[in-house]
Amino acid sequence: MSDQSTSATRTEPPQIVGYTLRDSRYLNITNRCTLRCAFCPKFNDQWTVQDYQLRLDHEPTLEEIVAAAGNPEDYREIVFCGLGEPTLRLYTLLEVATRLRPRARRIRLNTDGLANLVYGRDVTPDMESLIDALSVSLNAQDAETYNQHCRPKLPGAYEAMLDFVRCAREFVPEITLTAIDGLPGVDIAACEKIAQRLKVGFRRRVLNVVG
Ligand code: SF4
Fold first, then answer.
1. Probe residue for ligand 1, chosen from 35, 55, 153 as the CB with the greatest number of ligand atoms within 8 Å
2. Is the C-beta atom of 86 inside 6 A of ligand 1?
3. pLDDT string in tens for the chain (211-residue length)
4. Which residues contact 197 (CB under 8 A, 6 or more apart)?
């Protein structure tokens, strides 16, 4: 974390809520997380992703997020994804998606898949007709490896994430599980098999590449 005394004397760049990668518009709506991933750049005080400084000085309001989306029709997709877990602001997220829906070609949510665990109910029906695609961080082929890398704050996170995916299949047309290649003990082939068993897609990710 940054030193308060130095941050007070330097001019911080304005916080970035909306940013563009390739032809997609990304929305960075919170820095809070359910996980504490050991590989996360923010735990190494790295908040910059491809020149975008994603550290928030406050959580953006609904209006700020909608404004940050720009003209949704200009992008291939709108993606809820920043250095934080978007579903920790589920109701704001859903309201933003509702507002953007008429103009957005596609709305994707990058998530840790722990929203059902956090909210104590199945929230996936809330996503119906609003979220077109989910990218869910599977991250490991078993709970032990997952816990080692992702260090969840809540018990039962790995199974809860898999349950979230099972539930979401009914309400979100496209689901892709992701895992990062190169982390010790992570078996990418085994992760892909889990996705196949769940009848969802799979994507191998590269460390520190957002998408
Ligand atoms: S879920 Fe993402 S932002 Fe949160 S700790 Fe893990 S890598 Fe970092």
1. 35
2. no
3. 333 333 444 456 678 999 999 999 999 999 999 999 999 988 888 888 888 889 999 999 999 999 999 999 999 999 999 899 999 999 999 999 999 999 999 999 999 999 999 999 999 999 999 999 999 999 999 999 999 999 999 999 999 999 999 999 999 999 999 999 999 999 999 999 999 999 999 999 987 655 5
4. none
Go through the domains of the chain in sequence order and give each one's CATH number: 13-206 (3.20.20.70)
Separation of 147 CA from ligand 1 center, angstroms? 13
Q: Residue 104 C-alpha to ligand 1 middle, in angstroms?
A: 26
For atom 7 of ligand 1, the residue with the nearest CA is: 40
Evaluate: CB of 112 within 6 angstroms of ligand 1: yes
Give the β-pairing of 174-181 and 77-80.
Answer: unpaired
**What pLDDT score was predicted for residue 127?**
98
Please list, in sequence order, all residues whose beta carbon lies within 8 angstroms of the beta carbon of residue 46, skipping any fewer than 6 positions away: none
- Residue 5 buriedness (CB in 10 A; 0-12 / 13-18 / 19+): exposed
CA 166 to ligand 1 centroid distance, Å: 22
Cβ of 35 below 6 Å from ligand 1: yes
Specify whether the CB–CB gap between 26 and 19 falls below 8 A: yes
- CA dist 185 and 145 (Å) reads 7
